[in-house]
Design brief:
It contains six helices and six strands. With 200 residues, it is an alpha+beta fold. A hairpin with a 3-residue loop joins strand 3 and strand 4. The protein is elongated, with a radius of gyration of 18 Å.
Length: 200
């Protein structure tokens, strides 16, 4: 994660890892790409000319992909200047665990309001991606994984009040998976209450 300055016009080009949450057509040639970035949180970046014949950028910003992007903050909008896809696990396999991965990214798009970095949520997205791509899925039920993911999301966004036992469930998946049995009854109830708070 870093940024550098383009020498020609001194616009700051930010180089950051990002998850592609959505792509939206805004003209015959342009898309707005919704990115969950490590540097800035959620960013809506305009990709100019991406739909033109021969444009190579489009294949690197597929929904749900993990991508390394260059973005520039314009006067009114962000602009996407380049991208290189690192991983898109859904290209090769869609399983119940892939649905948990996309559910988490969809929930980020739905509930994460504002443009500010949130390292805990970004790290959990990376954690989910690593878990999914390593096919280490026999160790945990998809329902448990979904509950843990939504719990982390609502906890860090302030929908869930802190309890003394929360730090256990906020651990990385690689640590939680060392446990034979993960009892999630309490956090399932708190996730349901958080969903009610959103009125959705």
């Amino acid at each position: 994660m870093y940024y550098y300055k383009k020498a020609t016009n001194m616009h700051t080009i930010y180089h950051t890892d990002a998850f592609v949450l959505d792509v939206r057509m805004v003209s015959e040639a342009d898309l707005v790409v919704v990115l969950f970035t490590e540097l800035f949180g959620i960013v809506h970046a305009r990709a100019t000319g991406i739909l033109k014949s021969g444009a190579k950028l489009r294949s690197h910003v597929q929904p749900w992909s993990f991508t390394r992007v260059d973005i520039v903050r314009g006067r009114e909008v962000w602009r996407l200047t380049s991208a290189r896809m690192i991983e898109n696990p859904l290209f090769s396999d869609v399983t119940q665990y892939g649905k948990v991965y996309t559910q988490y990214l969809s929930a980020l798009l739905r509930y994460y309001i504002g443009e500010e970095p949130h390292p805990e949520l970004f790290l959990h997205a990376r954690d989910l991606l690593d878990f999914y791509t390593q096919k280490d899925t026999e160790k945990i039920l998809s329902k448990t994984l979904a509950t843990l993911s939504l719990f982390k999301l609502f906890y860090y966004l302030g929908y869930i009040e802190h309890e003394d036992t929360d730090q256990y469930f906020l651990q990385p998946l690689s640590v939680l998976l060392l446990e034979k049995d993960i009892h999630t009854e309490n956090i399932e109830k708190r996730v349901r209450n958080a969903l009610k708070q959103t009125h959705l």
